Structures are given as structure tokens and as C-alpha cells.
Amino acid sequence: MSFLPGLANISKVPELRKRVLYTLLMLAVYRVGVFVTIPGVDRNAMRALVSKQGGLLGFVNMFSGGALGNLSVFALGIMPYVSASIVFQLLTMVYKPLDELRKEGEQGTRKINQYTRYATLGLSLVQSFSIAMTLEGASNNDLDTSGGVVAHAGWGFRLMTMLTLTTGTLFIMWVGEQITERGIGNGTSLIIFAGIVTDIPGGILSYFETHKGSIQPLNLAAVVTIILLTVAVIVFFERGQRRIPIYYARRSVGRRVYGGQTAHLPLRVNTAGTIPPIFASSLLMFPATLANFKIPGMAALQGSLDRGGWEFNFFYVALIIFFSFFYTAVTFPAVDVADNLKKQQAFIPSIRQGKQTADYIDRVLTRITLGGALYMAVVCVVPTLITEAFKVPFRFGGTSMMIVVGVALDTVAQIEAHLITRNYEGLSGGGGRATRIRGRRDFG
């Protein structure tokens, strides 16, 4: 019960209270939009199509919080923005003008974000046209219903769908940016988090209604055990870190002496957070868009990447490992860290400043990132494989659980930071800095 007093402290900090309420309000606006259907479609027919086909289509529907199944104005979700972010982060590694722009600081970052928004607009137009063509191609045989998804097919419907879905995606992008700037937590991650969490009660009720009188207690207990173990593993690794000791040299400024202190450089086991599975999922959805434009080989690739198949799992694991190393290299460059330590007259014991420090940090970071990447790959794939082996229709696999738990931990850490900097107890209660929820566990 010590959690409740810490939770009550949120109302005592006006700025934090406003941020939390603003975040909840924006997420509520997003959830309302999920149920606003685009013009000229049959929502019940679309639900039947998603339910029957499942696979990657159901996976996209999960990330959109059920918006695709409802054929809402938010059917594309936040994924076009995520895809655009992937493209520009990759370009900063290979395209020198963008890399120089990134190094300019806040002004350069603002410019790159503007380019990302333009790319989001373009991707949204392409993907919305793809969805319009897919809906028109859904026949009565696919749906087993009295009517198709689209009432009046043609360019009028296609243009209306492109305009509606693109506007919806741009609005979600704006909501995510507003949450990040004026709310609490990362807006993009929280939108995906909200979409997954709000779909859980419906999935549970649907399972019990479908299997009335035929529920096997042992299988159900096995799935619950898998969920609890997966959550425990996620929390353990997400809190893990390797602490490198840092010493500050003594220096005199006038009559005052500075330095001579000891600190630690924390290297997280999972520096990339929930970004790798989100990026990997976004890229695996892309062939379905290209297939609608009759690009050679894309239809076959889309079929082979059906969610649950070995091809999907192989590419999914490979992309998760790749993005773990890539995103860590982008957000935590060892050379820049070593240069900053040298400027602050700080050093690692037995390691020379400069290149040797950068090589040492890079070597340690590579090792723990490998462990973090393998952990993410296992968590995102193995729970789904196990539940399929038990023949239990479990919609929320390791990917969704990792996103939910990871986003929740990061958001709670930000709330606690606001509370503790104002001398309030953390969410765990008990008083003071000692009670703060540790964002990472020491693996050093």
C-alpha cells in the first residue's frame, strides 16, 4: 500500500499534475478517434476480414489499437511516423549533410524532425492508397458476409480514404509530439502503449465467450505463468546496467579546488529501449503496402512474412538485433562520450583519455548490447511460440508485453524524477531518494 501515498504526491506538484492530466486528455482524444469510421465502408465487414485473416493484418490492427478493424480515421496509426523516423536515422549514419545537421544541436534536430514530418506525409499517402485498394479487393468470398467492405468503389473512395487516413496519421503525430513536449513520457511510445492496453480487456472477454465450457485450466494456467515470467524477465533486463567507474581530476580555480570525486558512467543493457521491436514491426509491415502497387516479388514476400511463420520470426529477430546495435550507436556514441569526459578532466582508471577510453566504452557497450539484443529477440518471439504450442489463442505476445512494460517503466521513472527533485517521496513511498524506483539494475 506504500504505492498509494507516492501516487497521491502527484497532485501536490502543480507542474507534474498538469503534465499527467494533459497526457491522459490527449490519449483520450486519440482513443475517441479510433471509433470514428472513414466514409463509405462497412465496419462490421472489416472486422470479419481482420478476424478471419489474422496474421500480419491482425498484428497491424493490434498496433493501431483496433483502429484498422474499425476502419477509423486513425487506421494507419503512428507507424508511418515511426517508419519515417527509421529512414532519417539511417540516413544520418550514411549521409554526411544530415549527420552535420544532427551535430548542430537543437536547431539541427528541429530541422530533421521537420523533414521526418514531410516523409510521414508521403508515407501516409502511399499506405492509405494501399489500404483503399486492399479494401476494394476484399470480395464477398473473403468475408462470408452479405456485402463487401466498400459500398462504392472507385477514385472517389480512394481519394477520400487517402485524405482521411493521412489527416488522421498527421493528427496522431501531432498528439505524440505534444505529449512528449507538454506531457509526461514519450508520446509515440505512449500512443502504441494505449492501443495495446485498451485492447486487452476485449481480447480476454472474446476468448472466454468463444470457449465457453471448453476452457482447459492447465493451458490457461500455463499461459498466465508465461505472462508473469515474461514480465519478470523484462523488468529485470530493463533495469540492468553496467556501471563504469569515473574519476574527476583535482583542479584549482583561484582559491577553490574542484574535482577529486568519484562517479559512475551507467551503460544500460537495453540502451535502445522498445525502439528495436517497434522499428522491426514497422519494416515487416512495409511489403504489404508495396504488394498493392504490383511491385514484382512483393506479393510473394508478403505471403512468406505471415505472422507466426518461421520466415517472419527469422527476419523479426534479425531486425531486432540490428536495430539494437544501430540505435545504441546513434544515441550513445562512444567517441563523443570519451571527448566529453576528457573536457571535464574525468578518466576511467587504468585507461588513457581519448581513443583508448572510446575503445574501452565501445567494447563494453557492444558486449552488453549483444545481451540486450538477444533478450529482446527471445522475449518478442518465444512467448508467442510457446502459447501456439499449447493451442491457446493468445493475442498479446512478447512484443506487446515488452512495449507495455518498457513504456510503463520509463513513464514511472519520469514521474519519480519530477517528485524526487521537489523533495517528495517516489511512487514506491517511504521517503527520499533511497526509495526511488531504480530505472536500471547493475550488471557490473
CATH overall fold name of the largest domain: Preprotein translocase SecY subunit
Category from helices, strands and their pairing: mainly alpha
Beta-strand portion reads: 5-15%
The number of domains is 2
Overall pLDDT, averaged? 77
Helix and strand run: HHHHHHHHHHHHEEEEHHHHEHHE
Computed over alpha carbons, the radius of gyration is 24 Å
So, CATH architecture of the largest domain? Orthogonal Bundle
Distance between the termini: 32 Å
Assign a percent range to the helix content: 55-70%
* Outline type: globular
What is the CATH class name of the largest domain?
A: Mainly Alpha
Number of strands: 6
Individual helix count: 18
**Would you identify the regions where 5 or more consecutive residues have pLDDT less than 50?**
139-146, 430-444
Largest sheet, in brief, is: 4 strands, mixed
What's the CATH H-level homologous superfamily of the largest domain? SecY subunit domain
Present the secondary structure layout.
Blueprint: H1 3-8, H2 14-33, H3 43-53, H4 55-63, H5 79-94, H6 96-102, H7 106-137, H8 140-143, H9 155-182, H10 187-197, H11 200-210, H12 217-238, E1 240-248, E2 251-253, E3 256-258, E4 262-268, H13 275-291, H14 298-304, H15 310-331, H16 334-343, E5 346-347, H17 355-389, H18 398-421, E6 441-442
Parallel strand pairs: 1-6
Antiparallel strand pairs: 1-4, 1-5, 2-3
Helix pairs in contact: 2-9, 2-10, 5-6, 5-7, 5-13, 6-7, 7-9, 7-13, 9-10, 10-18, 12-17, 12-18, 13-14, 13-15, 15-17, 16-17, 17-18
